[in-house]
């Protein structure tokens, strides 16, 4: 009887240890998933910021091109006079 009780106690302790191990593994998995989500969010934010910066750069270049074009047209008009 005592032996059975000890075996049952050992079995329960092992079960408990395994449950704790599984819980820890799940916790680690969730933390890793969260880190990956944060990393993806940051990467997407950086990508959007870069895209925005490039769009702004293109707009500035277009404004400069138009201003140069206007300047040249004005010079032509003055030359014609």
UniProtKB/TrEMBL annotation:
Originating species: Biomphalaria glabrata (Bloodfluke planorb)
Extent of Acidic residues compositional bias: 1-35, 51-81
Domain of life: Eukaryota
Biased amino acid composition, Basic and acidic residues: 36-50
Gene: 106066899
Protein name: Uncharacterized protein
Disordered as annotated region, ranges: 1-81
């Amino acid at each position: 009887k005592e032996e059975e009780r000890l075996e049952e106690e050992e079995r329960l302790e092992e079960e408990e240890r395994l449950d704790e191990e599984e819980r820890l593994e799940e916790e680690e998995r969730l933390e890793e998933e969260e880190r990956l989500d944060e990393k993806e969010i940051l990467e997407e934010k950086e990508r959007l910021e870069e895209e925005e910066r490039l769009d702004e750069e293109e707009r500035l270049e277009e404004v400069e091109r138009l201003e140069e074009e206007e300047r040249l047209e004005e010079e032509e008009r003055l030359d014609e006079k």
